């Protein structure tokens, strides 16, 4: 689906040099001078962080009109990112680009629009990002299909995306370097789904599909260089490598549960250490492996063995500290303990004390507007469970949205089968409850203590956990 951008009125910033009179103003091409500025509606903070390779280059503070502007005397062409907590996005600069952006934090990605020299390629990068996100949100049921139907579905989606990319490439005069990023967005989205399918299918249906895959199913791996320096700081690339390692290990595992065992997570670290030469990518990937492993194995003895190898491979101490902090927070969620207190509100705007409203065995599940397919299917799943388990209490918690967005989504989708609560502080719930996957579900005992804080509504064995 092609993104249709609203018309954006030219930003008028009083401190811009007088020769910057139009978004299409052509600047004198001297050295690598570049300009970056914009306006943020409903800002969450008073600054924007500008980064390259995950390292902060500069911080731009918003003025009284929520605008910022900066001139770079020299800016190396390439992929950058900007962050306005808690959101971030990419921006690509060619030589002498002059980019202005406008966005509304209420709908960060969908509202983001660039104008100025270099705007067309950056607007296309956002168009492609939104297209891929929409595509992934439609994959919920597709992963349960048989191989032939799955391949037919994703190939059809790939062909549409590739056609969109080729049309934009023919129209926009972008560089070979930018084309590397744009083309990889198309290819990695397709390859990611192919790697996810075998274990997602087994997770959802309980049936292994790996021996039924066509002989050429993994041919895409030959075309993806895991040490491509042009992509090392592009998140779709790192996500693909992480899911690739999961799938490689799953190929030798007897079932999906074995894939998350200590032994197989040790294998993931070893494979990552062997295959990935770029230290930055290796650190990001092994960090992802560690965070995923911690959510599935809370055995202290196993964790010790895992981290002995992890610490030898990881060279990024900051990432390692974050992983160890996550490990500590996870251990606070052990069975029979009580959940750390977080801020929650009901639909009337009243603060809710979770410990006071739990009277029966309770299922907590999470959703966000940004993953609409999961939001809808999780509530449908609860409809099925409520019919089978009328004595169980179901509590739905929205994260990552504004209060207005949450209320609008409840009304639009008619979500009314659970007690609907809202978490206004994503950082708080992410750290205290370690909610870094929207698919996480928690089961609580009638006294509010934890029965199991690390399950999923869509696990084929979920009801076995529910009955314990």
TrEMBL record:
InterPro entries per the UniProt record, alphabetical: Thioredoxin-like_fold (IPR012336), Thioredoxin-like_sf (IPR036249)
Domain Thioredoxin-like fold, first and last residues per copy: 362-450
Leader sequence residues: none
Organism: Flavobacterium indicum (strain DSM 17447 / CIP 109464 / GPTSA100-9)
Organism domain of life: Bacteria
Name recorded for this polypeptide: Thioredoxin-like fold domain-containing protein
């Amino acid at each position: 689906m092609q993104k249709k951008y609203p018309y954006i009125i030219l930003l008028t910033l009083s401190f811009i040099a007088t020769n910057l009179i139009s978004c299409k103003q052509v600047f004198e091409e001297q050295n690598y001078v570049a300009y970056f500025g914009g306006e943020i509606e409903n800002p969450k903070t008073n600054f924007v962080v500008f980064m390259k390779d995950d390292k902060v280059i500069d911080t731009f503070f918003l003025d009284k009109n929520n605008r910022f502007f900066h001139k770079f005397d020299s800016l190396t062409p390439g992929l950058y990112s900007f962050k306005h907590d808690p959101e971030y996005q990419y921006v690509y600069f060619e030589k002498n680009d002059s980019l202005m952006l406008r966005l509304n934090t209420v709908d960060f990605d969908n509202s983001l629009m660039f104008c100025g020299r270099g705007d067309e390629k950056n607007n296309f990068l956002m168009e492609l990002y939104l297209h891929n996100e929409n595509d992934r949100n439609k994959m919920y049921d597709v992963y349960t299909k048989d191989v032939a139907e799955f391949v037919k579905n994703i190939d059809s989606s790939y062909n549409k995306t590739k056609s969109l990319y080729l049309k934009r490439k023919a129209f926009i005069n972008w560089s070979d370097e930018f084309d590397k990023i744009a083309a990889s967005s198309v290819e990695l989205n397709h390859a990611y789904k192919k790697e996810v399918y075998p274990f997602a299918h087994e997770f959802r249906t309980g049936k292994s599909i790996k021996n039924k895959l066509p002989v050429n199913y993994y041919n895409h791996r030959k075309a993806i260089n895991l040490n491509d320096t042009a992509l090392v700081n592009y998140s779709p690339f790192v996500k693909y490598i992480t899911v690739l390692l999961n799938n490689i290990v799953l190929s030798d595992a007897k079932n999906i549960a074995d894939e998350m065992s200590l032994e197989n997570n040790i294998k993931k670290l070893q494979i990552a250490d062997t295959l990935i030469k770029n230290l930055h990518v290796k650190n990001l990937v092994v960090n992802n492996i560690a965070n995923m492993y911690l959510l599935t194995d809370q055995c202290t003895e196993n964790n010790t063995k895992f981290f002995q190898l992890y610490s030898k491979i990881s060279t990024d101490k900051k990432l390692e500290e974050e992983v160890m902090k996550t490990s500590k927070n996870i251990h606070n969620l052990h069975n029979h303990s009580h959940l750390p207190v977080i801020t929650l509100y009901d639909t009337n705007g009243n603060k809710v004390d979770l410990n006071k409203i739990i009277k029966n065995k309770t299922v907590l599940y999470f959703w966000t507007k940004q993953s609409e397919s999961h939001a809808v299917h999780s509530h449908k799943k609860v409809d099925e469970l409520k019919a089978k388990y009328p004595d169980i209490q179901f509590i739905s918690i929205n994260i990552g949205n504004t209060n207005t967005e949450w209320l609008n989504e409840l009304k639009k989708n008619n979500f009314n089968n659970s007690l609907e609560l809202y978490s206004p502080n994503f950082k708080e719930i992410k750290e205290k409850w370690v909610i870094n996957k929207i698919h996480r579900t928690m089961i609580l005992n009638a006294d509010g203590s934890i029965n199991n804080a690390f399950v999923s509504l869509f696990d084929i064995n979920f009801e076995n956990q529910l009955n314990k």
